[in-house]
User: Fold these one by one.
Assistant:
Number 1:
Amino acid sequence: MPKNTIGKVRTRFAPSPTGYLHVGGARTALYSYLYAKHTGGEYVLRVEDTDQVRSTEDALKMQVEDLLWLGLNWDEGPDPKTLKDLGSFAPYRQSQRLEIYKKYSDQILAQGKAFYCFCTDEDLERKRQKAMKEGRPPHYDGTCRKIDIETAKQKISRGEKGAVRFLVTHTHDVKFNDLIRGEVVFPPGMLGDFILLRSDGMPVYNFCCTIDDALMEITHVLRAEEHLSNTLRQLLIYEALGFEIPIFGHLSIILGADRQKLSKRHGDTSCHEYKEKGYLPEAIKNYIALLGWSSPKGQEIFTESELIEQFDLDRLNPAAAVFDEVKLKWVNAQYIRTMPHAELWQKLLPFFDGAGLKLPSDIEWQDKAIGLMKTSMETLVDAVELFRPLSLTELDLNDEGKEVLKWETSFKVITKWREKIEGCGKMYLSTAEFDAIINSVKDECNVKGKFLFMPTRVAIIGKPHGAELKQLVPLLSKDVLVARANRCLKI
RNA sequence: GUCCCUAUCGUCUAGAGGCCUAGGACAAUACCCUUUCACGGUAUGGACCCGGGUUCGAAUCCCGGUGGGGACGCCA
């Protein structure tokens, strides 16, 4: 009987590689990871790829990539680079553990706790519909229970396809103690005989999951609430095989703003999409940690080590939580503000490149620019519009800007502005020098308020509204400022 | 249909029978700062799903209802 001999906490995240990593999956992975780290235990990545139709190698790569992006590195599982299984419980891909499942299936069959089923899909579907219509639970009706094992084996040896079903006969309540929900009771009659092995020999989720959790000595199974009723099947398998039962914790579901389970209908639900929208992995992690868990201190923004230190399983909320991107944005903004400038610049670079922005490569300039801009952005994508006026490309005058240039006083203001900059000895103006110049333009042209600031802003960024000039001007060289002013004067 | 889970401001939550006139965060509103916007600061409004019990006392415990979610697959 498999047993956790080390006495260590072992958690796992067991995704099915059928697409991108969903935020719900990310949270399950995060909690499993955090709990293992918190207790000094081990965190395993196992790949549940027994659905050969839907599981793909590409999807596995995507999931691995997203998990690594979030920094949820596993102690055992497929190697991040080669995807080769690493760890003493290998293999970690269920598609490579088929003999193991076969062995246990044979054992259950031999115990008489399972039987071969030769019913066809069509038969089953018809019976299911009929049962539903008559108000009965749509359970398997037990047709093949009466086929004895020898007869069944003969049929199989003649090439007939048979699935293996677990024989569900218990008449007692099945109970377990859920970490999050307390005692959960399943009365008898909730279940029909369920499949262990499909007729093509592939095992199904509930079977592999149970065997692997036991064999891999997983001590704490954290998974989404939709698996709560699966636990009954798994408990019956644990019982039949005499395996030690792990501690289960069923995490609440994450909902969209419409209070329905978060899904593709809600738009962006994968980590990958949030990455593209300019969210930092630290921020996503921090935000999803708070969906269903709270810090005993009431803290909301954490470093990685604070999260690990404070995270525990006794503060998980059983009720479903709505995913709120507005708050995610706020969390993201907090991280942007505290991130070292050079690091933030590196993260911004792909977004600038993607938008075709050409920005100075001077490190000092970049540092100054980030310092001035970072409180104005919530996501990395926001930086694109913020930095666009600083791009060393031709000034883009918008219609609103052109309107401002038509004002009577605008020509005078911009001419004076250009004259003042040209007269300045330095390559970059300081904020104070900019203030001084603006004030002298104001006095000498005798204009103020919007008639002063709007034309000046148009001469600098091509539009009358937007970024703070005090932030922008110190980041634009004299040459660029003059060239842009000239451009406006020519219209 | 049957079973399981669940219910505190718009959202995430604190709350372990008296510390609750229910606390915090995001969002909202107002004001301050600012010659635009944002940042920042200050303040305001905003919730215990409903009905029964138990108790001297219930957001908290119990029962019922209602709402929401999940499961009843040769999907996971």
Note: Residues 69 and 484 of chain A are 41 Å apart (CA to CA).
Number 2:
Amino acid sequence: MQSVEWERSREELEAVLAGTLPGAKEIDPAECSAGRFLLAYSDGRQIPAGAVAAIPLDWALASGFQRMVWKELAKVPFGETITYGELAARCGRGEAARAVGAALARNPWPVIVPCHRVVGAGGRMVGFGKGIAAKRTLLAFEKRCLDEAAGCIKKRQNG
DNA sequence: AGAATGACGGACC
DNA sequence: AGGTCCGCCATTC
């Protein structure tokens, strides 16, 4: 799989696709692993971090460092966040927070490789290719899903 | 090969 | 809180 794209409307998306993937054919999302992943995600299901491994992402164009950052990021669970610096540390490059930002800016598969879960030091909201607002929306969505799930459990415990 | 460029982080004002 | 400066580091030109 090459990339994840999204736009505000079908028209805009098709315009973008016409430039990046001319002649692309449409298929049923349920027919491919990435499609099923995104369907489940938008459904609010908490997808286990390991599920990303089942998607045939095309790492060919990634540098060694980018591959490391993206793979490490894929381990961050639904609804949780991590700092650029912490992610750098997990890649064995504690001082490379800034370089991590550069790598994330080139993430070909947003949402699947959850770059929206990477926040600035102290939880500060910074950067995102599609805009901070989109990043907030995704994080809020995940948090809401977690809260609802927690509510269900509590309800069950109470009776 | 060297300089410029960021989705950083921390210090300081 | 908000703005500047500077050290960091992988990439890019």
Note: Chain A has a mean pLDDT of 93.
